[in-house]
Amino acid sequence: MHQIKAVFNGNFDYIENIKVSPFSRAYTFSDSVYEVIPFYNKKSISLESHIERLQRSVDALSINLDLKIVTTEINQLLSSSSFDNGYIYYQVTRGEDLIRSHMHSDQMKTETFGYITPCSFETKRLNVMICEDIRWGRCDIKSTSLLANVLNMNNAKLHDCDEVIMHKHGILTEAGASNLFFIKDNNVCTPALSNNILPGITRSILIDALSDKGIKVFEGDFNHLELKTATSAWLTSSTKGIAPIENIVNIDNSLSLDDSLYISCKEIFDSKFFG
Predict the structure, then answer these.
(1) Which of 36, 145, 183, 200 is deepest in the core (most CB within 10 A)?
(2) Structure confidence at residue 1 (pLDDT)
(3) Cβ distance 114 to 7 under 8 Å?
């Protein structure tokens, strides 16, 4: 297995040499946020948008962070890698406690960590299941506090599923690690952004690319039962790109992978994302 190149608090090394304190607030409280920046042909994809979202996340948690340093470290990881395609994970933690405490010190030093790894970006057909969204009320913050996602996705794994589509009181939110799109009545639809939905960078890339081609995306509040009459559906994320949904195991609907509108959306997206 390849050695994973990483950076911790500004020091570059292989990941096996990096040591993190058990009193890091990422470990004790998930008091941390992160980004996943894809790259293709050794070029980062929408780095500026990822940095802007990271800024919004740290601002929401009142964590001090120098975004210029973050950008430099991400670019250095990319330039030092032999991978053509992959992603960079970058995490920002409030810091390290002297002893575990809910109330953090105001003098805490911000902790940063990142690594780079390959990714093939192969299009995978997904089996998914619908489930209740049991996450906290600020999913628009890209927090490392993902236990609810883990519980839902591992329950779905027991049913031979790759992902979940979540709803809160019947209103669709997003997938476990992706944003949701579907086609209904020949319209491209996606749940509107709210505190219950992470504003996905790949989601935004797709919406903008479709708009440039004259295809409107309808953003709104959709009931999860509307997926019963959807003709096709897919998920978007930095590592999935566009991943078509082949089957939703707990509703009666045959989703098409040959839907002409879906195929057009996929071609437009691939040209923008990988172009």
Answers:
(1) 200
(2) 47
(3) yes
- Cα 53-125-274 angle, rounded to 5 deg: 50
Residue 7 in tokens: 């950076």
Mean pLDDT by 10 residues, the chain (275 residues): 88 96 97 98 97 98 97 97 96 96 94 97 94 97 98 97 97 98 97 97 98 98 96 96 95 87 97 92
Domains of the chain: 5-118 (3.30.470.10), 126-273 (3.20.10.10)
* β partners of residue 24: 96
* Residue 115 C-beta-side C-alpha neighbours within 13 Å: 14
What are the structure tokens assigned to 253, written together? 């609907």
Q: Which amino acid is at 227?
A: L
Residue 148 burial (10 A CB sphere; 0-12, 13-18, 19+): middle
Token pair for 145: 């506090």
Residues sharing a CB contact under 8 Å with residue 264, sequence separation 6 or more, in sequence order: 213, 215
Rounded Cα gap, residues 101 and 161, in angstroms: 38
Query: What Rg do the C-alpha atoms of the chain give, in angstroms?
Result: 19
DSSP 8-state code for residue 90? E
Please give the C-alpha separations between residue 39 and each of 25, 75, 100, 249, in angstroms, as whole numbers: 29, 11, 37, 32
Answer whether 0.90 is exceeded by the pTM. Answer: yes
The predicted-structure confidence for 71-89, as pLDDT tens digits, reads as follows 999 999 999 999 999 999 9
Question: How far is 176 from 156, CA to CA, in rounded Å?
Answer: 10
